[in-house]
Structure formats: structure tokens, C-alpha cells
Amino acid sequence: MNLQELKVAFVEAYGQESEAVYFAPGRVNLIGEHTDYNGGSVFPCALSFGAYLLMRPNNEKFVNFRSMNQPEVIKLGLNELTTPLEKTWVNYPLGVFAQFIKRGVEIKQGYDILIWGNVPNGAGLSSSAALEVVTAYALNDQLGTAFNRTVLAQISQKAEHEFAFVNCGIMDQFASANGAKDSAIHLNCDTLNFELVPVKLEGVKILISNTHSPHKLDSGAYNQRVAECKLAVEQINKVRPIKFLAELTEAEFKDVESAITDVTAHKRARHVVGEVQRTSDAVKALKAGDLVKFGQLMNASHVSLRDDYEVTGLHLDTMAEEAWKIDGVIGSRMTGGGFGGCTVSLVKDEAIDTFIDKVGTAYEAKTGLKPQFYIAEIGDGACKL
Length: 385
Ligand code: GLA
Hints:
Elements: H1 3-14, E1 20-29, E2 41-42, E3 44-57, E4 62-67, E5 74-77, H2 91-102, E6 111-117, H3 127-143, H4 149-163, H5 171-178, E7 183-188, E8 194-198, E9 204-210, H6 221-236, H7 250-256, H8 263-287, H9 291-307, H10 314-324, E10 329-335, E11 342-348, H11 352-367, E12 372-375, E13 383-384
Parallel strand pairs: 4-6
Antiparallel strand pairs: 1-3, 1-13, 2-7, 3-6, 4-5, 7-8, 9-11, 9-12, 10-11
Helix pairs in contact: 2-3, 2-4, 3-4, 3-5, 4-5, 6-8, 8-9, 10-11
Bound molecules: alpha-D-galactopyranose.
Residues 33-34, 36-37, 168-169, 171-172, 336-337 line the site of alpha-D-galactopyranose.
């Protein structure tokens, strides 16, 4: 599907041309996993694929939602934009409308909307954040509300909390809103200060491997992790006041860890504290051009997500562990929420074909699933086309 075809599809759906087209990308996180809702830092990049939204004010009192990816077509009155619907894709854009209204923005007329996304669904590459952010960006433009990109990310995150019931951190929506071509975003998720770090990889590609085992973020396992980290904070507070796990260095954690009596919460906290350190070390390594170090930190991140955070499983572990066997793989780890989805690997150009062949064959033999591989292009954040 290209832009021209989308424009034609809009006319077919609504009988008139769209007025504007917007885009927001998916993301891949290089390192810093499950740190965002713990006040830590993350290091994602926006991808060149994402969600497109075509829109036209319709002078009516209802909003029409359609997608080229989904069958349901939903028409909602302007007084029906603040309540989530039964499980449907429309909850993502609808949740964003609701957040604008909650912030006191008046939506005086309806819109015809057509969406198309090319982020593989369930791959952990933030198809839902792309959908939320593209809606937020489009509404901001149409309504002239002038929210900045960080606020648009926060609106989108709230939509995910209240309309998809996932208590996610800010990483995905922030990366989709603030991404920049050929840069990764080093984001402090507590202060929301960020730095764009150029990703200049001479002779090395970022390879994404899709396990095709869908990551089930809404399954409750994600919210359970969020709750376990909260419990760890509460238990640590008996001996030292902290707001977030990420406030502790590894040495400080050693001093207080015995206060965490819940065995699971203790493991989760150990991952977070270690991952925060790895993320900061990895950013330094990248800036210094030390890819070997960066790769080692990626591998260590995967091991910690596997053993302490327990969000990997057979599919992600097989994909990463098979990758580690290939000469020319600098580092490989799961990316995103986990429980299926994708791994991200840094691979030397000359090893890409061998990687796809060997890792693909071994993965399929072990899991019975056919994987898919994409070379990531790092793109810009949300925009009007
Ligand atoms: C999902 C969430 C993010 C983040 C990652 C794990 O992608 O949406 O906020 O917590 O998982 O790093």
C-alpha cells in the first residue's frame, strides 16, 4: 500500500478527498528494557515504518474510524468519545480523542479518518504507540492545540493506560513522537530530558528478528511486572526512601536489597538496577565508538530479562541464543515488552546472510515457527506528510 493508494481508498470510503495525511513511526529499543516505568533511562530509535492517518473534518457531529488493517468500521457521536469500547482497535485512536477532551479541548465537529499501519502487529515494535501518536499529532494539528511532542507522547501513553488497560511507561510513545533519523534517543523517563545520539554504524546493521510468537502485552503479565516493581519500592522504603528503583546504583541496591522480602520482587528490582547501569554504559560505549562493549551489554541485558525479569521465553531465548553463535554478531537481545515479539541484533554486513540462514533454520527447527528478518532504518518522529 502506498500513499496514492491510501488516498484513493479514502475517497472510496468517504466520497471525498482527505484533507491531510499524518505519519508516526514504530520503534525498536536498543537497550534499557522495563526501566521506563521505574524512572530509568531507555535508548530506542524510531523506525521507518509506522502508522499513517488520513483525515478530513466532516462538518457533522460524529467521527468515523476506519482502518485498512482491520474490518471494523466505527462511527461515534461527539458525546461518545470519552468511553472505551469493547475490545477493538478503535480504542487506540479513541483513547487519544478522550485525552484531548479531558484536557479541556472542545471538539466541535466530526472527522472522517482512515488509518493504515505497516508495523507488524504483535511484534513488540509499538504498532499501538504509532497509532496513538499519529492520532495525537493529527488532532493537535487539526484543532490547533499546539501541544509539544512530549505532551503528545504523554497524551498517547494515557490513552494506552485508560483505553487499552496497559500501564506502560513513556518509551514507545516518546520515541514515536520524538524520533530522529539515524539517531537513538537517550531518554531519562523520570525527567523526560533526552539526548539524540547519532547511530553511525560503519559496516554494521541493526537487524530485527520477528519470532512470530505474538507478544501479549495485554495479557496481564506486563501489569504484573509493573506491580512487582512497585512492591520492591515499597519494601525498600522501609529502610530508605526512594520513589523509583532507578534511583539506586548497583552498590546502593546491595545495601538495601535484603529489605525486599518478596523473592520475585527482589529479582525484578535487581534487573532494573542493573539495566539502568547497562543503559548508561551502552550509551557511553556507542559515543566512544566501542561497539564490542555495546554488544556485550546488549547480551547481558537479554540474560537479565531472561533470568531475573522473566519476560523472554522459548521463542525470544532461542532467537537470541542462536544469534550469539554467529561470527559477526556484535550483540543480540529481546526488544520491547517481551513474551514474544522481536529481538534486535547488531550484525556485521558480511554476516547478515549467514545470520538469516542459520538463525532462521535453527529457530524454525526448535519452535516450528517461521521467523522474519528486517534491517532497521532509523527514521524521524511523527509528522504531517
Ligand atoms: C513496552 C511498554 C514500554 C516499556 C517496554 C519495556 O513496550 O510499552 O513502556 O515498558 O515494554 O521496556
